[in-house]
Amino acid sequence: PLGAMTRGSRCMLYGITHQNDADNHEQSGIYINGASNHIIGNHVVGMENALFINSVFAWGNPDGAALNRVCKLAMPVGVTSGNVFHNNAGFGWYANSLYSTNVLTDEDGYVADWSTCNLYNMQTGADQSQNIVVQNHVEYFEDFSFGVYECGDVTFRNVISAFNAKGFYWKSYRRGLGSEAFCVN
Questions:
Q1: CA-based nearest residue to 104, from 113, 95, 93
Q2: Is the confidence at residue 38, as pLDDT, over 90?
Q3: Which of 28, 47, 76, 115 is most buried, with most CB under 10 Å away?
Q4: Is 24 exposed, middle or buried (0-12, 13-18, 19+ CB in 10 A)?
Q5: 60 contacts 68 by C-beta, under 8 angstroms
Q6: Is 80 exceeded by the pLDDT of residue 12?
Protein backbone atom coordinates (compact mmCIF):
# COMPACT_ATOMS: atom_id res chain seq x y z
CA PRO A 1 0.00 0.00 0.00
CA LEU A 2 0.92 3.63 -0.31
CA GLY A 3 3.67 4.51 2.17
CA ALA A 4 4.48 0.91 3.15
CA MET A 5 8.02 -0.40 3.29
CA THR A 6 9.16 -3.01 0.78
CA ARG A 7 10.68 -6.30 1.91
CA GLY A 8 14.09 -5.23 0.59
CA SER A 9 14.19 -2.10 2.75
CA ARG A 10 13.51 -3.68 6.12
CA CYS A 11 15.78 -3.47 9.13
CA MET A 12 17.54 -6.76 9.95
CA LEU A 13 20.65 -8.13 11.57
CA TYR A 14 22.80 -11.12 10.65
CA GLY A 15 23.85 -11.87 14.20
CA ILE A 16 24.05 -14.85 16.51
CA THR A 17 23.14 -18.13 14.77
CA HIS A 18 20.70 -19.44 17.39
CA GLN A 19 18.91 -16.06 17.40
CA ASN A 20 18.49 -15.90 13.63
CA ASP A 21 14.69 -15.89 13.92
CA ALA A 22 14.67 -12.76 16.09
CA ASP A 23 17.59 -11.03 14.36
CA ASN A 24 16.74 -11.68 10.75
CA HIS A 25 13.69 -13.78 9.79
CA GLU A 26 11.16 -12.11 12.10
CA GLN A 27 13.08 -9.01 13.14
CA SER A 28 10.71 -6.83 15.12
CA GLY A 29 10.60 -3.55 16.96
CA ILE A 30 9.20 -5.43 19.97
CA TYR A 31 10.09 -9.15 19.99
CA ILE A 32 8.90 -11.10 23.01
CA ASN A 33 8.78 -14.74 24.01
CA GLY A 34 6.60 -14.25 27.07
CA ALA A 35 3.16 -12.93 26.22
CA SER A 36 2.58 -11.90 29.85
CA ASN A 37 4.56 -8.69 29.29
CA HIS A 38 2.65 -5.41 29.13
CA ILE A 39 2.97 -3.54 25.82
CA ILE A 40 1.77 0.00 26.52
CA GLY A 41 2.27 3.31 24.71
CA ASN A 42 4.80 2.27 22.05
CA HIS A 43 5.34 3.77 18.60
CA VAL A 44 7.03 1.34 16.19
CA VAL A 45 7.92 2.25 12.60
CA GLY A 46 10.20 0.87 9.86
CA MET A 47 10.67 -2.72 11.02
CA GLU A 48 9.88 -6.13 9.53
CA ASN A 49 7.20 -6.55 12.24
CA ALA A 50 6.16 -4.02 14.86
CA LEU A 51 5.35 -6.54 17.64
CA PHE A 52 6.00 -10.28 17.46
CA ILE A 53 4.89 -12.58 20.28
CA ASN A 54 6.87 -15.72 19.51
CA SER A 55 5.55 -18.75 21.36
CA VAL A 56 7.12 -21.29 19.03
CA PHE A 57 8.83 -23.22 21.87
CA ALA A 58 5.73 -24.15 23.85
CA TRP A 59 7.57 -25.25 27.02
CA GLY A 60 10.25 -22.54 27.09
CA ASN A 61 13.29 -21.77 24.96
CA PRO A 62 15.61 -24.78 24.46
CA ASP A 63 18.51 -22.99 26.14
CA GLY A 64 16.55 -21.02 28.74
CA ALA A 65 16.07 -21.35 32.49
CA ALA A 66 12.29 -21.65 32.03
CA LEU A 67 12.47 -24.80 29.88
CA ASN A 68 9.74 -27.21 31.03
CA ARG A 69 8.61 -24.73 33.68
CA VAL A 70 6.19 -22.67 31.54
CA CYS A 71 3.43 -23.29 29.01
CA LYS A 72 4.02 -20.34 26.69
CA LEU A 73 1.07 -21.03 24.39
CA ALA A 74 -1.33 -20.66 27.32
CA MET A 75 0.25 -17.99 29.54
CA PRO A 76 -2.02 -14.98 30.17
CA VAL A 77 -1.34 -12.07 27.84
CA GLY A 78 -0.43 -8.78 29.48
CA VAL A 79 -2.03 -5.41 28.79
CA THR A 80 -1.69 -4.27 25.17
CA SER A 81 -2.88 -0.68 24.95
CA GLY A 82 -2.15 2.72 23.42
CA ASN A 83 0.30 1.56 20.75
CA VAL A 84 0.84 2.98 17.26
CA PHE A 85 2.44 0.77 14.59
CA HIS A 86 2.98 2.00 11.03
CA ASN A 87 5.13 1.64 7.92
CA ASN A 88 6.37 -1.84 8.86
CA ALA A 89 7.18 -4.27 6.03
CA GLY A 90 5.35 -7.28 7.49
CA PHE A 91 2.99 -7.42 10.45
CA GLY A 92 1.98 -4.86 13.02
CA TRP A 93 0.56 -6.89 15.95
CA TYR A 94 1.69 -10.49 15.30
CA ALA A 95 1.65 -13.75 17.25
CA ASN A 96 2.39 -17.23 15.97
CA SER A 97 0.50 -19.29 18.60
CA LEU A 98 -1.55 -18.08 21.58
CA TYR A 99 -4.37 -19.85 23.39
CA SER A 100 -4.37 -17.97 26.67
CA THR A 101 -5.76 -19.50 29.86
CA ASN A 102 -5.61 -18.41 33.49
CA VAL A 103 -2.40 -20.33 34.20
CA LEU A 104 -1.61 -20.68 37.90
CA THR A 105 2.01 -19.73 38.51
CA ASP A 106 4.34 -19.56 41.48
CA GLU A 107 6.17 -16.44 42.70
CA ASP A 108 8.83 -16.91 39.97
CA GLY A 109 6.29 -17.11 37.13
CA TYR A 110 6.70 -20.86 36.63
CA VAL A 111 3.64 -23.08 36.23
CA ALA A 112 2.30 -24.19 39.62
CA ASP A 113 -0.60 -26.29 38.26
CA TRP A 114 -0.13 -27.81 34.79
CA SER A 115 -3.83 -28.58 34.42
CA THR A 116 -4.44 -24.81 34.12
CA CYS A 117 -2.47 -24.79 30.82
CA ASN A 118 -5.29 -26.64 29.05
CA LEU A 119 -8.11 -24.87 27.24
CA TYR A 120 -10.52 -27.22 29.01
CA ASN A 121 -10.58 -28.64 32.51
CA MET A 122 -10.09 -32.34 31.82
CA GLN A 123 -12.14 -33.34 34.88
CA THR A 124 -15.20 -31.11 34.41
CA GLY A 125 -14.99 -30.06 30.74
CA ALA A 126 -15.17 -26.39 31.75
CA ASP A 127 -13.69 -23.85 29.36
CA GLN A 128 -10.54 -22.31 30.89
CA SER A 129 -9.73 -19.85 28.10
CA GLN A 130 -8.90 -16.24 28.88
CA ASN A 131 -9.78 -13.40 26.55
CA ILE A 132 -6.85 -11.39 25.10
CA VAL A 133 -7.60 -7.68 24.61
CA VAL A 134 -5.77 -5.27 22.32
CA GLN A 135 -7.14 -1.80 22.96
CA ASN A 136 -6.75 1.86 21.98
CA HIS A 137 -4.41 0.78 19.19
CA VAL A 138 -3.62 2.20 15.70
CA GLU A 139 -1.96 0.50 12.69
CA TYR A 140 -1.46 1.82 9.15
CA PHE A 141 0.70 1.44 6.02
CA GLU A 142 1.68 -2.17 6.73
CA ASP A 143 1.45 -5.35 4.71
CA PHE A 144 -0.41 -7.64 7.12
CA SER A 145 -1.42 -5.33 9.98
CA PHE A 146 -2.84 -7.72 12.67
CA GLY A 147 -2.02 -11.38 12.20
CA VAL A 148 -1.65 -14.80 13.76
CA TYR A 149 -1.13 -18.38 12.73
CA GLU A 150 -3.04 -19.81 15.67
CA CYS A 151 -4.85 -17.74 18.27
CA GLY A 152 -7.97 -17.90 20.33
CA ASP A 153 -10.12 -15.58 22.34
CA VAL A 154 -8.90 -12.16 21.25
CA THR A 155 -10.79 -8.87 21.18
CA PHE A 156 -9.73 -5.68 19.39
CA ARG A 157 -11.32 -2.78 21.28
CA ASN A 158 -11.11 0.83 20.01
CA VAL A 159 -8.68 -0.19 17.27
CA ILE A 160 -8.01 1.59 13.98
CA SER A 161 -6.46 -0.35 11.10
CA ALA A 162 -6.19 1.60 7.82
CA PHE A 163 -4.28 1.65 4.52
CA ASN A 164 -2.84 -1.83 5.07
CA ALA A 165 -2.62 -4.46 2.32
CA LYS A 166 -4.38 -6.93 4.67
CA GLY A 167 -6.36 -5.65 7.67
CA PHE A 168 -6.54 -8.92 9.63
CA TYR A 169 -4.66 -12.14 8.77
CA TRP A 170 -5.80 -15.21 10.71
CA LYS A 171 -5.10 -18.87 9.90
CA SER A 172 -6.67 -20.66 12.88
CA TYR A 173 -9.02 -19.23 15.46
CA ARG A 174 -11.03 -20.39 18.45
CA ARG A 175 -13.73 -18.67 20.53
CA GLY A 176 -14.16 -19.64 24.17
CA LEU A 177 -17.34 -19.30 26.18
CA GLY A 178 -16.06 -16.16 27.97
CA SER A 179 -14.79 -14.39 24.86
CA GLU A 180 -15.89 -10.93 23.94
CA ALA A 181 -16.66 -9.96 20.34
CA PHE A 182 -13.72 -10.03 17.91
CA CYS A 183 -13.99 -6.26 17.26
CA VAL A 184 -15.57 -3.76 19.65
CA ASN A 185 -16.16 -0.12 18.75
A1: 113
A2: yes
A3: 47
A4: middle
A5: yes
A6: no
